[in-house]
Amino acid sequence: MPQVEIFTPTGVVSGSTTRATVGSDAKGAPRPLPVDASRWYPLDGTAPERRGPITVAPDEMLVVVLEPPPFTIHASWYPIELDMGPYHLDARLPTAPGFDPARALARPSGPFIALRDVTITLPGRSEAAVERAYAHVNRYAVERVASNLMLGFFFPGAAFEPLHDRAGRLSAPTALRRPQPA
């Protein structure tokens, strides 16, 4: 069975699940995720505990780490920062070649968006950072987005701002980065 980590507003659940993806029902609503042999890691500093089989409600799932999602296109990977609940994420968002978010007919169809090269941190607690190759984020739970793409259709209700690199310049997508003159 696939291993799963679910970041909730109050802690992290890890264990195994029978499902290989985060899914939605026929109406597009997220489905609860069953977790076997679960372990609970609370954010309040109390001791972790084993909980056995549980089901995590869709509204509690902010970030879900499962098997790598199938990326079937030659994507351009844009840097993105997200704030949701107690978590801050630095990641890369895939887009199709020639993607124009204002004119795109294809919009996210489910409640979760797949990202890669994800770093999840708790602001103010640098020792709590974790890195994952892939993660799925609940796009309806995102409160702030820093990106150089207009992603209003991807993250409805979020506040948007431009993404700056560490030197204060606007960031470029991975595919378009060029060396800077000295």
What spatial order of strands do you see in the largest sheet?
4-3-2-1-5-9-8-7-6-10-11
Strand content: 35-45%
Structural class: mainly beta
Query: From N to C, what is the helix and strand string?
Result: EEEEEEEEEEE
Low-confidence stretches: 173-182
Q: How many distinct helices?
A: 0
Characterize the main sheet. Answer: 11 strands, mixed
Rg result: 17 Å
How would you concisely characterize the structure shown here?
This protein has 182 residues and is mostly beta strands. 0% of the residues lie in helices and 45% in strands.
Keywords:
182 residues; SH3 type barrels; eleven-stranded mixed β-sheet; disordered C terminus
Write the layout of secondary structure elements.
Layout: E1 3-7, E2 11-16, E3 33-42, E4 49-56, E5 63-65, E6 76-84, E7 87-95, E8 112-122, E9 125-138, E10 144-146, E11 159-161
Parallel strand pairs: 10-11
Antiparallel strand pairs: 1-2, 1-5, 2-3, 3-4, 5-9, 6-7, 6-10, 7-8, 8-9
Could you characterize what this model shows?
The chain has 182 residues and is mainly β. It folds into two domains: 3-65, SH3 type barrels; 76-175, SH3 type barrels (Roll), CATH 2.30.30. It has no helices and eleven strands. It has strands at 3-7, 11-16, 33-42, 49-56, 63-65, 76-84, 87-95, 112-122, 125-138, 144-146, 159-161. The chain is globular, with a radius of gyration of 17 Å. The termini are far apart. Mean pLDDT is 81; it is low at 173-182.
